[in-house]
Specification:
Shape: globular
Strand content: 35-45%
Order of helices and strands: EHEEHEEHE
Radius of gyration: 15 Å
Number of strands: 6
Low-confidence stretches: none
CATH superfamily: Gamma-glutamyl cyclotransferase-like
Largest sheet: 5 strands, mixed, barrel
Number of helices: 3
CATH architecture: Roll
Structural class: alpha+beta
CATH class: Alpha Beta
Mean pLDDT: 90
CATH topology: Hypothetical upf0131 protein ytfp
Length: about 150
Amino acid sequence: MIVPAPSSPPEPLPFFVYGTLRPGERNHDVLLRGRTRTEEPARLTGAVLYEGPGFPYAVEEPGGVVRGELVTARPETYEELLSVLDRLEGYVAGDPRSLYERVAREVVREADETAVRAWVYVAGTAVTARLRDGGRIIESGAWSSRR
């Protein structure tokens, strides 16, 4: 009998957030307060932002830009925050029904144009297909501009 090797924990990358986790949005204080070391404006290139019911979806697409924040967790809260965000985003590794997929991508800090590798929750496969078929793109790439 072959026993699969235990999966290693994901690399402790910062998170790129672009919707309800941004400062001033409903999930920021509830989920991030006290768990982050830094939060700074950043952008993700190669993706567009779609308006979903109640929250946004980033969909990878050449030429697009999504605006958000690069959030670095405090080391002692990293694993807890990763678990909390996976739950919030409906992400289960390897599950094709996941609303979002957690992927490592380069994002750019607005302050100094430095590229940083970060976790980004992008729309899952089925959600991406529905959005491309009839979703509404947020042209500015900023969730706050939808109002």
